[in-house]
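DUF4365 domain-containing protein, Marinomonas foliarum. Tokens?
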Amino acid sequence: MTKRIKQHQLEDLSRHKFGLAIPQKWVYRDKDKDYGIDGEVEIFNSKERATGLVFWVQLKATASKQQRTIKGIDLSLETIKYYKRLDLPVLIARYSEVEDKFYVKWATQIDPFYAKDGAKTMRVSFSDSDILDEGKVIGIERYLQQLRAIRSGAITLPINVSLSFGSKSICGITPSLLLPKIRSQIPEFKDIIRLESGDKGILAEVHIDETTLKVGFLDIAGCTFHSVDLMDKSTLPIDLMKDICLSLSMALSQLGYSDLAARIVFSGDLRNRLKIKHELLKHLMPSLLKTRYFSETLELVSDVCDNEDNNYLEAITNLSLLFLRSSGNTEKLDAVEDFLKRNIDRYEKTAPSLYGISHYNLANFYRSADRLKESVKCFLVARRYEPKYYNQGYFYGELAGSLFELGRFFYSAKFYKKAMEIDGQKGYLPLYADALMFSGKYQQSLEVFNDFIDGECSPSAEWQLKSICLSSLIEKYNIKIQNRGVKAALALSDVCSVGDEDVEQYLEKALQQDMLCGLAWFNLGIHRSSIGEIEGAAFCFTMCALAQRWDIEAWVNATACSFNNVVPLEIFVLLIRAAYFCNGDKYLESLYELFESQLGEEALSQVAQVIEQVISEVKKTESAPALRMLNEDGKFEDIFSSQKA
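Tokens:
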């Protein structure tokens, strides 16, 4: 006959006993063990109404008589991390069959800092204060109420703080003497904290012992200093107060209260304390940069980097700025530029390599702000002072991008080719083809576009359109290469004073000067549309749009002229996707206005449904920002990509 092992009996017993140990107004439900959680508890009030307070329980039972076993369990660090990540709080409940008692502790109260180096598990200890009794039940309810208040955004300044001590002496000062000394510093920080006891609202807990200062909210957010014993006895009270305030700022940052966190940092003398405790700054900074203290944060980081060998902090700041991309705010842009220039000044005479890297960062900033001449200048300085850039494909790719936007297409193509020779990345191929096209090397451009499209499972609609139109252009005009005469073509494209019979002749002469003259193609499209050559007009407007990606009117006209049975459906679809990718909803707004005036509201509704389905596959997303650091091979590697640059 099958026997039921003792541990399974204990597990069932602990579930039954836990249901009896909690108040009757609480409801305990078993959970699927696959989740690593044994049960769920929902709290009801005395009127048998649901409070919305819920927590999960992990039961750990033992039949041992040994106190060390009863009051301790081993949990894997991965399990602890898992519990801390869950939306619902997890209560670890240790049941002793011998004592018929539960010892409970929230998973958030377990500090992995105390795990042994290299260990995969850690010992979680319980004490008599953890026994599940009436007082602990009240504490659990209060914990859940505070947790809900914290997550709902109810924290305000000043913050109520409860202070406790865990040692008989702190730097040679007894707690009974230290407490009034700390209290005497409160007026200086009255806008930040308020010492309280009891159950008054949300409480931040501060615990000090001979080596540790621990500050946090319910152990779900906070900061722990493990160096109290190294603090100066003569300034201990004021230094502790400052560290408590900075720790509260850290906790608020972790909870998403960025503005409150920043208000604390930039109050009184705390920013100077943060310069000393700059290990906190790298954690606080991404949050601080989201607030109105943007400029002050960058200035603080620069001050720290000026006085400390802290290139890592500088790198983290650069990363945060990449993600913010606040290009619409002039004040922030000025602050970022000042920060990047200050980095350059810092390294000019002391570290040529970092001087070059700082120019590279400024180059990319100028590039994102469309200050392209300054961008190119900084790229070239970066390469001169940091020779490793000579062997970085991405460097040539980014330089090529700036040169393309400046209209220096020959050099842009040259550097895109260099980038591919170094890295072999096919992603540069269409950009190289684009630069070749605008350099007037139409046949070579077509060949590169076709190579890219043949090897790509889903090439961009813009590249496909350019390939198709280039092929038609070369065949129709028998032109493979052209020294583009941009000014002459523009002059010939102004046909306002030219008679209707001579318009096409003038515009064809303009194209003989420059096959990528957008104005010539646009006016030719208008002319051909007026004489009923709709297919020819569609081609002309498409060429204009491809030469001038920002020209919404050209895209709309090309789309409208392609909305028929003459132009292949494939071209119509490519036009919509390319136009939407280049101009987004502004293109759709103009297109729908035209269709509504031509087709009516009901027909527009049907057409719009088709178009929305077509563009649903267009993933118009920004490229991920790149932060590169030297790898073991001496190459700058993008830390967000597994691909080496």
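Residues 164 and 580 are 61 Å apart (CA to CA).
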